[in-house]
């Protein structure tokens, strides 16, 4: 084997090792702080129709309150009654103050600590604001009356209805349309008999959301966290930074916005596209990113509607809705993403139907790629053998002797000779070049594949993360603070393959 071939194989091996190492570094915890962070907030066991203490008066004087809130002053006092609604997918806790969601817990998923995944808790804020004359009112300042709630678990569909009524014909109504068949929920705000008094033909939906910790490592989650939005047909993102806030103002038809974690997201989609949106990503420091969104939602006949999705970021599930939700997943840039969506994911989904072990599926997928590329690999082998023979021809030896002091001239003359013999030395590199984008596609898909979350294989407890068979508690340059056996075996197998391939050459 020629020196150039050895150099090429060495560089390819080095590239694969560095790529594997780089992917691991983006998801390796520092070992300091990640394990000391607080665990996710536990779901509150709120009994149906229980009550919590009322918020203190916002004004000590009722006349001042009347001046501030006008006709809405009587609704600024009350008790915040909480009640629970259960569906096959989630457990909801609602509160009458602001007609809000207090807590949302997924029924079928657990954190790394074995606790239920809570995607929404009392630290999150969701409210709507509207203007009547010179008065700007926020829903979380008002106490609503519960008009209807499901009597038991929701199996098909049902609604939770809140009302703030001035009279039977004049009221604000907030409706949550729950489904027992889906992760999505419909949200509706309707002004009856009040539309003519509103100053603007829209309401402002304000959301403050902190990414919940659902996985073992905070630093593993961070690279996958971003604030996504769809404007027209394009999906873009606002990526948070560690030490400074980022703000982006958008105008036009914003279809939806989504606060995405590693494997779960909280998505808000307007029935009528949002006309104006302001997104903020707050500094995350040692924790997880927090976001703020101000969504301008048009009122149509006094009614504003949204659809929310609080659930897993599984590609097939998100794609089923036909709204581009799946574009939140970072499956690689440009054509790398197309390799994933057109080949890797469909084959993965097909194998998933018949094989229960995801480790076996990954192995079969890798072997399938090798089989598909085997004709080109064989051609590369033949080219290598031919080049080995050609290098021993007298004509080549004569050129090397004639131009031994002129390397540039030697390269030109040698290339002309190769053309006369009908040999292209670079053709042997084609299989290697084709494997690189497929390799990149697979390394982009696996960290984002919800199917691999908390799935074990051999010594690895979670295929979506690194396998730390050895930790030494401090960081070493290049190596980090742990040893990944899969990464080590990949490097060793590549070196062994290169060695035995060289031995098999004549």
How would you portray this structure in words?
30% of the residues lie in helices and 33% in strands. Strand 9 and strand 10 form a beta hairpin. With 506 residues, it is an alpha+beta fold. The chain has a domain of 280 residues: Beta-galactosidase, Chain A, domain 5, CATH 2.70.98.90. About 7% of the residues have low confidence. It is built from 10 helices and 20 strands. The strands form 3 sheets. Strands 6, 7, 8, 9, 10, 11, 12, 13, 14, 15, 16, 17 and 18 form a 13-stranded antiparallel β-sheet that branches.
Radius of gyration: 30 Å
Number of helices: 10
Major β-sheet profile: 13 strands, antiparallel
Q: Strand tally, please?
A: 20
H/E series? HEHEEEEEEEEEEEHEEEEEEHHHHHHEEH
**CATH top level of the domain at 50-329?**
Mainly Beta
Shape summary: elongated
CATH architecture of the domain at 50-329: Distorted Sandwich
Distance from first to last alpha carbon: 8 Å
Oligomer designation: single chain
Q: Could you name the ranges where pLDDT drops below 50 across 5 or more consecutive residues?
A: 21-55
Instruction: Classify the helix fraction into a percent range.
Output: 25-40%
């Amino acid at each position: 084997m020629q020196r150039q071939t050895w150099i090429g194989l060495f560089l390819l091996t080095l590239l694969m090792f560095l790529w594997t190492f780089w992917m691991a570094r983006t998801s390796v915890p520092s070992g300091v702080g990640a394990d000391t962070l607080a665990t996710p907030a536990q779901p509150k066991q709120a009994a149906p129709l229980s009550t919590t203490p009322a918020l203190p008066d916002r004004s000590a004087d009722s006349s001042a309150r009347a001046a501030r809130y006008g006709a809405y002053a009587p609704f600024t006092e009350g008790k915040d009654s909480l009640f629970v609604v259960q569906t096959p997918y989630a457990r909801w806790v609602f509160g009458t103050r602001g007609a809000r969601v207090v807590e949302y817990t997924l029924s079928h998923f657990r954190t790394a600590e074995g606790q239920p995944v809570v995607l929404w808790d009392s630290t999150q804020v969701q409210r709507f604001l509207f203007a009547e004359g010179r008065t700007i009112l926020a829903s979380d300042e008002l106490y609503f009356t519960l008009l209807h709630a499901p009597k038991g678990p929701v199996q098909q569909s049902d609604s939770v209805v809140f009302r703030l009524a001035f009279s039977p014909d004049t009221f604000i109504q907030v409706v949550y349309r729950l489904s027992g068949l889906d992760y999505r929920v419909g949200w509706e705000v309707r002004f009856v008999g009040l539309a003519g008094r509103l100053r603007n033909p829209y309401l402002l939906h304000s959301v403050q959301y902190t990414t919940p910790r659902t996985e073992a490592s905070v630093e593993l989650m961070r690279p996958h966290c971003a604030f996504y939005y769809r404007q027209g047909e394009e999906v873009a993102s606002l990526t948070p930074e560690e030490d400074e806030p980022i703000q982006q103002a958008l105008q036009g038809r914003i279809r939806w916005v989504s606060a995405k974690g590693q494997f779960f997201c909280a998505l808000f989609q307007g029935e009528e596209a949002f006309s104006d949106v302001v997104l903020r990503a707050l500094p995350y420091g040692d924790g997880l990113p927090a976001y703020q969104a101000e969504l301008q939602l048009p009122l149509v006949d006094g009614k504003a509607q949204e659809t929310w999705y609080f659930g897993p970021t599984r590609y097939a599930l998100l794609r089923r809705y036909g709204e581009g939700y799946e574009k939140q997943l970072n499956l690689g840039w440009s054509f790398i993403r197309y390799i994933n969506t057109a080949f890797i994911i469909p084959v993965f989904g097909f194998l998933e139907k018949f094989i229960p072990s995801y480790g076996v599926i990954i192995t079969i997928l890798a072997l399938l790629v090798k089989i598909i590329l085997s004709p080109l690999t064989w051609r590369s082998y033949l080219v290598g053998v031919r080049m080995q023979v050609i290098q021993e021809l007298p004509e080549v030896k004569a050129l090397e002797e004639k131009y031994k002091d002129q390397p540039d001239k030697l390269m030109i003359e040698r290339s002309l000779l190769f053309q006369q013999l009908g040999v292209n030395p670079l053709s042997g590199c084609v299989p290697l070049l084709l494997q690189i984008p497929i390799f990149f596609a697979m390394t982009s898909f696996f960290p984002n594949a919800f199917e691999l979350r908390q799935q074990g294989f051999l010594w690895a407890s979670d295929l979506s993360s690194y396998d730390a068979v050895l930790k030494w508690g401090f960081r070493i340059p290049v190596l980090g603070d742990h040893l990944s056996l899969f990464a080590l075996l990949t490097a060793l197998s590549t070196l062994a393959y290169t060695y035995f391939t060289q031995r098999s050459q004549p």
